[in-house]
Design goal:
8 strands, 8-stranded mixed beta sheet, binds 2-acetamido-2-deoxy-beta-D-glucopyranose, AB_hydrolase_3, signal, Lipase_GDXG_put_SER_AS, disulfide bond, alpha/beta, Rossmann fold, 13 helices
Length: 357
Amino acid sequence: MGAKLLCLFLTSALLAYYLYTPVLEDFEEPWKVMLIAAGVRVLDHVSEVADRLGLMHYMEATRLITNIDYVAPTSDENVTVTDTEFGKVPVRLYLPRKASDGLRRAVLFFHGGGWAIGQAGARSYDYLTRRTSNNLNAVVVSVNYRLVPEYHFPIPFEDVYSVTKFFLQSSVLSQYRVDPDRVCVAGDSAGGNLAAAVAQQLLEDSEVKTKLKAQALLYPALQTLDMNLPSYQDNKNKPVLTRSLMIRFWSEYFTSDPAERAQNCPGFLDRRAAPLLASDAQLRGLPLTYVLTCQHDLLRDDGVMYAVRLRAAGVPVTHDHAKDAFHAVLSFASCPLKLAVGRRLLDRYIAWLNENL
Ligand SMILES: *[C@@H]1O[C@H](CO)[C@@H](O)[C@H](O)[C@H]1NC(C)=O
């Protein structure tokens, strides 16, 4: 009896430890947020153990577990979904079925996950890109760029850039009946980082004749120089991205070799990795921009600074700031972990695309 009670006590204590999040008053639907935060913590601990035991790299373990969420390409009555390759890079392609009078719009979407996890076929991303395609009657290309720790900067960037260049060829645009004046890049978190970097790079690429109409940056990571910004300090332990995990993502993006990291961190001052490093002159001419930032997100100030700098450089910017949201909230816009705030912000993002693309 005593042993059973002790077991029960220990289990409850462990569960309470995992579930407890000291920030609940900030959010609506606090119990769901608590479950999400607990899930993330379990994921972190399991990956850390796997890494320390030498079973696999932390990021590989995290990816293995999060990939449980994979859904195969599945067409529905409105959208034809296929996995294919654009310029040797795997992509998931969403083609609207509805007949359209003229040419269609297109969104190149780059998923988040610290350049190390996530995929176009993750349930939440499949939901987001499918809805974008359906609601906008747009072609959506969701890119499965290569990931850390097997690949490092600049490879994830180069993969999304080469898909973008491939897609912007006039022969490809006309094959998919896409209007060359209505193409947009978009991404969340690390994907927002990639989208911002792609938009900058295209301005200087004389080989690409088609200009982007817009860029949509959802809580993007944009800089490596200050990990003690107010948003980093305020939110260092908020769901779902902690400061230590973000630092790990950034470090691993550049290299997994501690010796190399100590000497010279390749790419650290490269604006293809940190788009906020661009000069004002390099920001001029960027397309119409949507930036979403969340109050309880350590990347908040990255997005805020970019929005301010873009406006100062004459770029038309819509900056949505969500006071009641945390990082990656759009990944919680669909079942099984659906948050009202996630759904609301996803609707907002799609409405902006609909009005501006
Ligand atoms: C297809 O589009 C219609 C009209 O927008 C919508 O009512 C329906 O739910 C969509 N079907 C799916 C599977 O999304």
